[in-house]
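Posting this for the archive.
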Amino acid sequence: MSSDLNDYYHLHPEVKGQGKYVQKIDLPDGNYNVFVDIDPKGLSYSVEPIHLSIGHTNEDPSKNKLIADTNFTKTINGQTVELITDIIKMNKEVTFNFDVKDATPEPYLGALGHVVITDEKGGKFIHVHPMSEKETVFMTIFDERGLYKMWAEFKLDGEVIVYPFVIEVQ
């Protein structure tokens, strides 16, 4: 994700063997946080950002100023999704129900959708899958108050569409 939280890429690198994975991507100049989300057998692993700078950059990622969305209905490429949730409180389970209007999501990377969430600084990484194989309902817990950027991904008519939301945790 770009450090200003405007750009987001969900990539799966190609296996090259012996624990090596490769991903080629053309990125515009800027600063990025890369998260490697793996689950190695028999090992403990935490997902921490890897900072990457491409070309000429003069951004200050500490100056991100997210503004919480007041409208949780987004239309992208003619397809509308509504986020339905209650007030989000720290250290309490929260459910995100995505109402995909007039379409049925197709399985994408083994699930009906994916949700990735980061804090305003782009340092946290929360990757959530649906609670079932039949509904676009996701659940997570936040351990800190603040504003968070969320990207919800759904495959609709063969195309993966990413819906960005800014949420507030109280």
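The longest strand covers residues 146-156. The chain has two domains: 14-61, 73-169.
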